[in-house]
Design brief:
The protein has 223 residues and is of the alpha/beta class. It is 29% helix and 27% strand. The strands form two sheets. The protein has a seven-stranded mixed sheet with strand order 3-2-1-4-5-9-8. Strand 6 (151-154) and strand 7 (162-165) form a beta hairpin. The protein is globular. The termini are far apart.
């Protein structure tokens, strides 16, 4: 069975129950994604967060930027709680490979969810999120970021599920229209320890179609 199906059936709700008290205490001023956006002076007006839980981050971003915000999460409980707490948000149940049918946005946030996605879905996830990001928009990727490679660990909360770790910004950075403009790496617990398996990063990539028209920097030849 795909991980997506297990999360949609039960584990997403279980994750939310384990973490909802903690996430409801989080302040925007300490949020790595907000800090990254502030560092580049970006002021989004339409935001989509993938893996939004109950929308706690989106609610604060909406208030700070005056933005229209959309969020998806596989937890039905989280989305129901978010709809009650933050009625101004547009929240729906879903997974990263099936994004909502909305007009393009100028900021897409992957809010620490890609490590739990099925690796075979990453092409679909990248293509669908690129389709929803406007030109000159920003892709924010917040996730585990080991120094090298792609590998998996057993997922401690459910048998037969895995945590897949890699530098997920590479889903976009390989393409000439995406340029990484911000990166910050820390230990999962927020310290500066460099334990490879526990490193997380927030990375911002700007989408710019002008990069597709770069001229040949080398000596022109007739071939």
């Amino acid at each position: 069975m795909k991980q997506k199906n297990v999360f949609m059936k039960e584990e997403a709700d279980a994750w939310y129950e384990r973490n909802k008290f903690c996430i409801n205490q989080k302040a925007l001023s300490n949020d790595p994604i907000f800090i990254a956006l502030q560092s580049i002076g970006y002021q989004p007006k339409r935001i989509l967060e993938i893996g939004c839980a109950n929308g706690w981050r989106l609610a604060q971003l909406a208030n700070y930027y005056g933005a229209t915000c959309y969020g998806i999460d596989p937890s039905q409980t989280a989305i129901e709680d978010g709809a009650k707490s933050y009625p101004e948000l547009n929240l729906s149940v879903g997974t990263a490979d099936g994004l909502p049918d909305i007009k393009p946005v100028d900021l897409i946030i992957f809010g620490f969810c890609l490590y739990l996605c099925d690796p075979q879905d990453l092409f679909t996830i990248a293509a669908n999120s690129d389709r929803l990001l406007v030109d000159k928009g920003v892709m924010a990727v917040y996730d585990f970021c080991p120094p090298t490679g792609h590998y998996r660990n057993d997922y401690q909360h459910h048998a037969n599920l895995f945590s897949y770790k890699m530098n997920y910004s590479s889903m976009f950075s390989w393409h000439p229209s995406y340029c990484r403009i911000f990166e910050h790496i820390k230990h999962h617990d927020g310290t500066n320890e460099l334990e490879p398996d526990a490193l997380v990063s927030v990375q911002l990539l700007k989408k710019d179609s002008r990069l597709l028209d770069a001229k040949n920097p080398y000596l022109q030849r007739n071939y």
